## 1
Amino acid sequence: MHPEAARLVGAVRPGAVCLVVGGACDICTGALSVLAGTGGQVHCLDSPDRPARWSAMASTLGGADVVVHRSTDGVDAVCAQAELPKVDFIKADVRIAPPGLLLDAFVTLLRDRPALLLHIGPGGPVRRGRCEPDIVSSLTRSLAYEVYRWQGGDWRPVTSAVRDEGKYLFKTCEIPTGPL
């Protein structure tokens, strides 16, 4: 199994519906396709500005379960158009993803509580007026996600501010119910 796929075994189960936002043709697309299996789906949101060959390549990486959406619409709009009943996992490179990625996915994040693999770091988000601490804060405080980083062969909790470029896994926390 490819190392990228091995890292996601616990986060992506057979039958999962996955989204890839920003950079549709990458090794993670193939890994997600393998992990989601024949009953799962991988939907790649790719900009119409990117060369069509990248979208075509993404659709051949994992077989029939990979669907490429060449659109400027956000995550919520694409999920509605594709009539996805639930999204289990979102992989996004926030350095190159469209501005407003999380805002455009808010309904999906709230409704489905998917795990997220975000590639964050210096560069793209800062020059677009966003910064990683804002992204991390909105997920951890507003939507009750926990942050993990791959270290020493396992996903380890991140307890301080995210400062290094890299891939971070966000998983939902148990939201307490009842009186506080």
## 2
Amino acid sequence: MSMYATLEEAIDTAREEFLEASRDSGNDDLDPVVSQFSLQKYIMQDGEIMWEAEFLADENEAADALPFRTGEAAQAIFDGDFDETELRLEWQEENTLHEWDEGDYQYEPPLDTEEGKTAADEWEEL
């Protein structure tokens, strides 16, 4: 799973990866059916926001990101029938992962160190 600077790029890539995986599994259906859309927002150490998205054919599949929409809503996003601003507004900030160390992400910075307190202050400013 990869992270992208824009939500649109993350969704487009997730769509392409889903179509490729569908073809690789022998499913040449022109209208693939999506059951789940998973999404994750990251705030990197430098303050940059990154997104990760994934489409799944089965709601019970394990996703790298958080399940965000299922059923018809997931299919609508896959089909491009969504408002990016609305998705951003509906994202719950407590689900955002913050980069603590390179490749290490947490929902909140540890506050027991000076470095953690500084990071928390910077994240709150975003």
## 3
Amino acid sequence: MSDRLEWAHASSGAELLFPGEDIDGAVVEPGEIAVAVWTGSNGIALHGPREAVRDRLLQLALAVHEAPPVPFADACIPERTDPRRWRPTPLPRPLAPGPAGPALCGGVDRPAAADPRLATCPDCIEMWNSDTPLTRLSLAHAVPAPS
């Protein structure tokens, strides 16, 4: 994976590109189709055989549909939470952060995530995972390429 992303908002314009279309020196090859999402003057494109592009987009749509609740506010993991003892329970919806206090990352007055899976602080996540937790946390969830 790369360390750089071109960000495209869900409301960005998109178009299907067919073989022969040349954009910035990249040509859609015969037998392929591309889906381009525009980010202003730049864009990103997913390309390949029609069925492969369709299957990947459906797979990504399903991953978004089935994703856990998305935090709606910045929050840290409270310092008192023990990664070696905490057990997840169903999380049907995002929960508002609790009162501010000491955080796992060392922050003094940080909003407390109501559930560690709703933490948005990379330092808290790193500290959590370094303490042999029962449940590892991550701010990114891979969607494997279709086989």
